[in-house]
Amino acid sequence: MTSNNSYEYIDRESIGESLLCKLCSNPFINPVVTQCDYTYCGACIEPKIRSGSNCPSRSCNQLLTTAHLKSNTSMSLTISILDNLKGSCPERRIDCARKDVGCSWSGPRNTYDEHMNTCLFEKLRPMIDILYKVIEKQSFHIEELQKQKTQLEQKNAQVEQQKTQLEQQKTELGQQTTQLDQQKTKLKQQTTELG
């Protein structure tokens, strides 16, 4: 069994040579055609173009450029059809639907139902969904409390500022009262002196 990215080939020998890239020896992925009509995986031929190499075909051996590449539409169509078929293949490897909550099972599609009947994460899913909702509500509540805390801190800062201003005004009032008392005392002295 060999693999190519997300593909797994159970019977590698049954894959026709015309579907194999001459560079990676795997079935084509995003096939492109060179000026000499050889088809390669796009990801296999692009590094050769960037390095200024010649065409890997022995019959061509011309300098490769991106201008010479064209999409192999018939091959792309065939691969698209194969991709659609792959989705229904009973041996296709798939992950458990509960991977998002921690299940690490991965296996052939034809054993998926059996796994789901014994998957602990599947059985715990209703409780996990409830916990996620509780966490979501608590997160929202925490955000609201943080906003309220920020508003209270701003109000406390305003109150502290007003207290400081009030203390300054008290101090000024005290000074003015002292000055007034001094003026009264002077006025009494002057009244006494005159009278």
Automatic annotation (TrEMBL):
Entries under SUPFAM superfamilies matching the protein: RING/U-box
Entry keywords, A to Z: Metal-binding, Zinc, Zinc-finger
Molecular function GO labels: zinc ion binding
PROSITE patterns attached to this UniProt entry: ZF_RING_2 (PS50089)
Chain residue ranges for the region called Disordered: 161-195
Sequence ranges assigned to domain RING-type in this UniProt record: 21-56
Protein name: RING-type domain-containing protein
Organism listed in the record: Rotaria magnacalcarata
